[in-house]
Amino acid sequence: MDDCWRYKCRNCGNFFRDYHAACSACWAQGQLLPVPHRSRADIDSQPGVASAREIGRMTWAEVEQNACPGLILGAGALVDMEGGAGAGKSTLAGRVADSICGPALLVSAEESIGPSLASRLERCAIKRPDFYVVTRASVDHVVGLAKSVRAVVLVIDSIQEAVWRADDLRHVLEVVPSLDLLIAVLQVNKQGAPLGRNEFAHEADVRIHCEAMRWRLIKSRYQSISDVGGMVLPVRDGTPRE
Questions:
Q1: Tens of pLDDT along 62-75?
Q2: Closest by CA position to 223, among listed 24, 70, 60, 94
Q3: CA distance 139 to 41
Q4: Number of domains within the chain
Q5: Residue 189 and which of 26, 32, 90, 182 are 20 to 30 A apart at CA?
Q6: Cα(51)–Cα(38) distance, rounded to whole angstroms?
Q7: What's the pTM value of the predicted model, to 2 decimals?
């Protein structure tokens, strides 16, 4: 999140630099709230260092996942999962992370550790002991934890609530050697665009749009996006799970 965005409309989710009595996007009165800020992270001063062999692996290797048939992900990829409330983006992010072999770390900025989060993990059948969850964590804390558990996949849910910037995401991939994949969950406005600025969409290697518990590929550096998509949750006995 760029620090110049100081207010957010509680009604439609759009961001603004200055306070206005009415939101210019949805015209709701008195709905602009201050956006939280964070201090510059220590990670910002850490250079990304890798060997030629590691860079080659990030460039060409494919991340094996079985949650989304037909979706190709390259090692070192930044994946945006976008959608409105209840569209299935958080569920899909959890399923993809769980389907990758190796420790996973979920930064749950929207839900605290409790019954609601437990229910979502249960719907995704996520039960393994090396799937870690952290809430209310700073960028530096997340980087330290990801390094300590040697996470291969990291999920930030959601970027807006965690108050992370687009360059934070790419930098985390550079300074956490074990990471193969970083999944950023993004809220969208009524027009379907990510809330805030467009740096997230431009920075992403892969963009997935979720709607009504279905997903479709809208951008990829690794494959054609034509007709790539499916159900957020797998079908059982001919009936999609909800």
A1: 999 999 999 999 99
A2: 70
A3: 7
A4: 2
A5: 182
A6: 32
A7: 0.80
